[in-house]
Specification:
By secondary structure, the chain is an alpha/beta fold. The protein has helices at residues 11-19, 23-29, 37-45, 74-78, 119-131, 149-155, 169-178, 237-248, and strands at residues 2-4, 31-35, 52-56, 68-72, 90-94, 109-113, 136-139, 164-166, 182-186, 193-194, 203-207, 222-225. Helices cover 29% and strands 20% of the residues.
Length: 250
């Protein structure tokens, strides 16, 4: 059954609106706001049950069991999303479990994101990691919120299929050590090993902050560098991560 709401003062719509703008609202409610039918399909196929589904007038409601399906006027709908040009379907789901959990994989491979602040980069890396069969994406403190709508849009729904975990640097390093993974950092150094020059089996690669690179906390690990033949001295974080994960995929 579709519920129609025509007032922006409605408490449910106020909650949904806050989820796209306020991380505290997401933590307090335990929900995050997603958009688009592709993302909804990904959520459902991953066993994630939506709590709310919102559509504007003129759009067909999806068949979703156990969800509260709401229809609103288009103008009211457009004000619910914090993103420009929202897709004609919004839905809420419980926040993902970001706790550190055993990988339970043969020859596990991870990427660790060290203080990446651009939610688009974080979402794109999650999407690429899923495509390259990487076992987990680890987030240090200071990384963009994986429940940020911009992160979710860039992940294109793969956030529901990819294991994403977050922890303090000390906890992440202990986790990787306990898992028996070889850790590499990334950057430019005379002592760095060229990408393609070492095996990336059973390893984790740390991708550094967009401007500052990898923090001192990760010093002491072997550094990887991406050989470039042109005049550019560096690559964006998401592109560098994609090249590295391409090498890790085998």
């Amino acid at each position: 059954m579709i519920e129609r709401i025509e007032s922006g003062a409605n408490q449910t719509l106020k909650l949904i609106r806050s989820l796209g703008r306020d991380a505290a609202a997401r933590r307090e409610s335990g929900l995050m706001l997603c958009e688009g039918r592709k993302a909804l399909d990904e959520a459902l196929s991953s066993g994630v049950k939506p709590v709310h589904v919102v559509i504007p007038d003129g759009c067909e409601a999806p068949s979703v069991r156990a969800a509260r399906v709401i229809q609103t006027p288009r103008k009211l709908f457009d004000g619910l999303s914090a993103l420009d040009a929202p897709r004609p379907l919004l839905f809420t789901v419980p926040l993902p479990d970001l706790s550190l959990r055993p990988l339970n994989a043969v020859n596990p491979k991870c990427v660790a994101l060290d203080r990446l602040q651009d939610p688009g980069n974080v979402g794109s890396i999650i999407r690429t990691a899923c495509a390259m069969s990487i076992d987990a994406v680890l987030l240090t403190p200071g990384c963009a919120d994986p429940s940020n709508p911009k992160t979710l849009r860039a992940s294109a729904g793969t956030i529901f299929r990819m294991r994403v975990m977050r922890g303090a640097e000390e906890d992440l390093r202990g986790y990787l050590n306990q898992a028996g993974l070889t850790v590499y950092t990334t950057g430019v150094s005379g002592q760095a090993v060229r990408l393609g020059g070492v095996s990336l089996d059973n390893c984790a690669v740390v991708i550094g902050n967009e401007g500052a690179g990898v923090s001192e906390f990760w010093s002491g690990f072997q550094m990887l560098t991406i050989p470039m033949t042109g005049r550019c001295e560096s690559l964006g974080a998401a592109v560098a991560a994609a090249l590295i994960m391409w090498e890790m995929r085998a």
